Structure prediction request, 56 residues.
Amino acid sequence: MEFLFTANHEHTETKKWCEENNLNFSYLKWNDNFSEQRNFNFNQAKGYDFVLWGGF
Prediction:
């Protein structure tokens, strides 16, 4: 199992938490395009049978 966190704004606390817990963190500037954000995150999840995605 792997966790891939993608933020759409600079979120230093989340990035720090991910680093401390050996989790993957990425950032993509928000361009008012929901599917761009989702697809950016999904493209990082290669080789898996399924992806569980949630936004908050």
In short: The first strand starts at residue 4 and ends at 7. Helices lie at 12-20, 34-42.
